[in-house]
């Protein structure tokens, strides 16, 4: 079974800003039908309306990936509307960096809840649909922090290593699904707003002058989705040329 490669139904988590927003806009411009999910519904409503005003197909639905119920309702709304789910882009993520000895245990748990549990909740919600279809594509946003560990990023890196492990497991188990890991380097977005330690936040922001636009990551996602159905782009790493 195959889906028309021209217009896929694409669910995007964390679509209210940064990479998720850029991905929604890029994929809609490529002719895909996008469904935006995030907690800030005013934002996703406005982005979806802007996409429609430009001639694209976009819907939105409130989504908190830490709640399995919320994830199920997001996926159900998209499936009810379009009758299928071709692609899930697991993009929602948080990055409250700090050193381990700062003991910000609540922030460790938040990263685990959003970056790992959130990804698993979304996979759980779409997998039965994709199985019924006999096809589907899961795109998971990891990070260069999923390839290496830096000070202040132990827990964040752990969550992104986990995303890569989950992706590889899903790929091996699911010969009818395509699975892509996209690992961005420094990218302009709102991600550093969540760093509560002001010294760490300033240090990270000092590196941000070399950051690439979120559209660069969106282009990579668009490329992976646009390949023929028997071509599975497994892993893409996109970082600023000047990043160490
Ligand atoms: P942003 O902060 O701009 O976007 C993060 C998105 O995640 C927002 O739309 C936010 O929406 C959403 N989100 C956060 N928590 C939840 C939740 N519980 N439920 C649903 N959505 C949630 O950052 P980026 O665009 O940079 O981040 C996107 C992804 O890219 C993340 O996974 C991040 O780890 C990864 N990444 C980013 C890099 C960078 O340099 N920017 C580098 C490597 C990876 P809302 O608050 O409205 O719910």
UniProtKB/TrEMBL annotation:
Residues 8-189 form the Ketoreductase domain. Transmembrane segments: none annotated. Its EC number is 1.-.-.-. Keywords: Oxidoreductase. PROSITE patterns: ADH_SHORT. One of its GO terms (molecular function) is oxidoreductase activity. The keyword Oxidoreductase applies. It comes from the Bacteria. It is an enzyme of class 1 (oxidoreductase). Signal peptide: none annotated. Belongs to the short-chain dehydrogenases/reductases (SDR) family. This is SDR family oxidoreductase. It comes from Streptomyces fildesensis. The lineage of its organism: Bacteria, Bacillati, Actinomycetota, Actinomycetes, Kitasatosporales.
């Amino acid at each position: 079974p195959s889906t028309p490669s021209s217009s896929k139904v694409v669910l995007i988590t964390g679509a209210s800003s940064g990479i998720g927003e850029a991905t929604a806009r890029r994929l809609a411009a490529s002719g895909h039908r996008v469904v935006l999910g995030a907690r800030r519904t005013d934002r996703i409503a406005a982005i979806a309306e802007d996409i429609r005003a430009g001639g694209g197909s976009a819907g939105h639905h409130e989504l908190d990936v830490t709640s399995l119920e919320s994830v199920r309702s997001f996926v159900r709304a998209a499936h009810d509307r379009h009758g299928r789910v071709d692609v899930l882009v697991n993009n929602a993520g948080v990055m409250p960096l700090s050193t381990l000895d700062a003991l910000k245990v609540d922030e460790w748990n938040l990263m685990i809840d959003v970056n790992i549990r959130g990804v698993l909740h979304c996979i759980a919600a779409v997998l039965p649909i994709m199985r019924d279809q006999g096809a589907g594509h899961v795109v998971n946003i990891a990070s260069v922090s999923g390839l290496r560990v830096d000070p202040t990023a132990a827990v964040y890196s752990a969550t992104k290593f986990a995303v890569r492990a989950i992706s590889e497991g899903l790929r091996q188990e699911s010969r009818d699904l395509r699975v892509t890991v996209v690992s961005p380097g420094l990218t302009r977005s709102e991600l550093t707003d969540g760093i509560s330690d002001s010294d760490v936040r300033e240090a990270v922001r000092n590196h941000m002058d070399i950051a690439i636009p979120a559209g660069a990551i969106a282009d990579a996602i668009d490329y992976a989705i646009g390949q023929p159905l028997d071509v599975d782009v497994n892993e893409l790493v996109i970082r600023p040329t000047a990043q160490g």
